[in-house]
Amino acid sequence: MERTDTTTLASTDSPPEVTLAEPAQVTTAATARAPITTAAMARAYAHAVVLEQWNDADRTATEAALIDLSLVVSELAANAVRHGGGLAGFEVTPTPQGVRLAVHDNSDVIPAAAFGAGSLPTQHLGNGYGWPVIIRLARDISVEPRPEGGKIVSVLVPLV
Fold first, then answer.
1. Which residues pair with 139 in a beta bridge?
2. Is residue 37 within 8 Å of 84, Cβ to Cβ?
3. Phi, psi (5° rounding) for residue 17?
4. Which of 19, 51, 54, 65 gets the highest tally of CB atoms within 10 A of its CB?
5. What is the pTM for the complete model shown?
């Protein structure tokens, strides 16, 4: 059976708008105009932030780095929707090394796999490849409680 992949990095026709309080700086967190509620919206937004705020004359994210970013965003957002009671917030903050993602959800449960070795499952028992992919592609993983309940999963995705 042939598989058709319908995933895209982002539409080049009309990327999500990015609102900034001042001119784009590498240290400014990006805030989306509309709430990010799906993995597809999160991927498009993260890609737009990289193109508009991280890339500059001295550095440009490679296609491979953008694919890694899309995979991490997809897994984090899907986990928030599937296991965390919904995607309650999504932030992308450019850093000199890449972008820091912060995914907010409504569950206080900290995933046990979040701090694992990134080993791939030997059989599928309800857990998939999500956290192993995140652990292999991201750095500086943290899980913090939200004051209003739920948690924030934060990771650094290198782009250099």
1. 156
2. no
3. -75, 150
4. 54
5. 0.76
E strands along the chain, which residues? Answer: 18-19, 31-32, 87-94, 98-105, 139-145, 151-158
Task: Say how far apart CA 128 and CA 43 lie, in whole Å.
Answer: 20
Say how far residue 32 (Cα) sits from the centre of its chain: 14
Task: Give me the residues paired with residue 86 across strands.
Answer: none
Considering Cα of 36, then 141, then 138, then 117, what sign does the dihedral take? negative
Q: Averaged in consecutive runs of 10 residues, what is the pLDDT profile of the chain (160 residues)?
A: 38 38 39 81 96 95 97 96 94 97 95 71 66 92 94 96
In the block, tokens 């999504």 appear at: 90
CA distance from start to end of the chain: 37
Cα 110 to Cα 69, 79, 115: the distances in Å are 22, 11, 10
Radius of gyration of the chain (CA): 16
Hey, what are 9's tokens? Answer: 């990095």
Question: DSSP secondary-structure letter at 22?
Answer: S
